[in-house]
Amino acid sequence: MDVGSGSVRAGVFDLSGQLLSHATHKITTVRRSGQRVEQSSEQIWQAVCRCIADALDSAGVAPQSVAGIGF
């Protein structure tokens, strides 16, 4: 997982470090008056969940088989 200011990215790797799949979802940034910038924590969380699901689906990997994920 990598959560940046513009998008969320997730990758699925095998035990040798080979990338099996990845997914990216954009995050909306709202610019307010002055230098205020806002993002929705709900949108970020939803993007994280979608990225993980999409990357696992694309790799054909069951969530239970991934170390560190307890779905």
Automatic annotation (TrEMBL):
Annotated GO biological process: pentose metabolic process
Record has Transferase as a keyword: yes
SUPFAM superfamilies per UniProt: Actin-like ATPase domain
InterPro entries (UniProt xref): ATPase_NBD, FGGY_N
Native organism taxonomy: Bacteria, Pseudomonadati, Pseudomonadota, Gammaproteobacteria, Enterobacterales
Enzyme class: transferase
Name the UniProt record assigns to this protein: Autoinducer 2 kinase LsrK
GO cellular component: cytoplasm
UniProt keyword annotations, A-Z: Kinase, Transferase
Record-listed E.C. numbers: 2.7.1.-
Carbohydrate kinase FGGY N-terminal domain ranges (all copies): 1-71
GO molecular function, one term: D-ribulokinase activity
